[in-house]
Amino acid sequence: MSRFSLTDLLLIALVTIWGVNFSIVKGAISGSSAPFTPVAFNAIRFSIATGVLIVLVRRLGEAMPASRRDWLAVAGLGLLGNTAYQVLFITGLDFTSPTSSSLILATTPVIVALIGAALRIETLTWPAWVGIGLSFAGISFVVLGNAANTTGHVSASPLLGDALIFLGTLVWSLYTVLSAPLLKRYSATLVTSLSVTIGSVPLILIALPDWLRLDWSAIPIAGWTSAAFSGVFALALGYVIWNRGVKHVGGARTAVYSNLTPVIAALFAWIVRGDPLTIYHLVGATIILAGINLTRFGKRTRTEPLPAEE
């Protein structure tokens, strides 16, 4: 078993930030007092993240991709892991709860394992398949329970929100797997910065109509603080740490840390927002986490670990 490293510590900090971020984003986009629409908030926080990452790359003196093929790969990752995923995430979270969305996203390791098996990167043994089945059963339990206990605080059925979050999970898992080859040749900071910058362009274009209608002078300090926290920590630093994890310890081990995100998200939403923590969430979380761990221990990687960044 690999020793605990600085990368592992950074990943723990990351999932803590992401757990808190669910409630922060939800408060900024949902409800009559929310200062932003979902697409407007998404574009603002990505603009902030892009600025932070550009400054970081320039200070580090990172070398740009050496070939057209690598540029196309980075662009594809940007549109996949930033544009597509973020549209699904922000829209889904507007319709459902932070706890439910975090539990669904926690199944990233399971989806990563399935993609790895499809690409013949990994072999899944019977415990892994049992774990995959448990994870999907747990998701079904959370989704159905969430729909049954909704009291009208969302603008549409939470089933739609949960479905969008699940699609986002598929997209993020694919991003995690497909980013690995680029991270063999370039730093996590460079890959993250370029992909976020490219992925931000469509997000800003989508948000332009909402930006034109937005009363910028009426946005409270709390709204700007939410956008800054989400843009700087959850996005800019978060994506760098995530890609560093994929590069140093591999996609599967990095994805396992998402086990902690729903625990932090549920507790923070319960304590700060007063969101209910139902029996459906507790039982569903238990089933999902058991399935994730069975999947983790029931798969066999066929490829060599990614080299560490120098």
Summarize the structure in words.
The chain is mainly alpha-helical and 310 residues long. The chain has one domain. The protein has 13 helices and 2 strands; from the N terminus they run αααααβααααααααβ. The chain has helices at residues 6-29, 38-60, 68-95, 98-105, 108-118, 126-148, 158-178, 180-185, 188-213, 221-249, 251-256, 260-273, 279-297; strands at residues 122-124, 299-301. The protein has a two-stranded antiparallel ribbon. The longest helix is centred in the last third of the chain and has 29 residues, at 221-249. The two termini are 22 Å apart.
How are the secondary structure elements laid out?
Elements: H1 6-29, H2 38-60, H3 68-95, H4 98-105, H5 108-118, E1 122-124, H6 126-148, H7 158-178, H8 180-185, H9 188-213, H10 221-249, H11 251-256, H12 260-273, H13 279-297, E2 299-301
Antiparallel strand pairs: 1-2
Helix pairs in contact: 1-4, 1-10, 1-12, 2-9, 2-10, 3-7, 3-9, 4-7, 4-12, 5-7, 6-13, 9-10
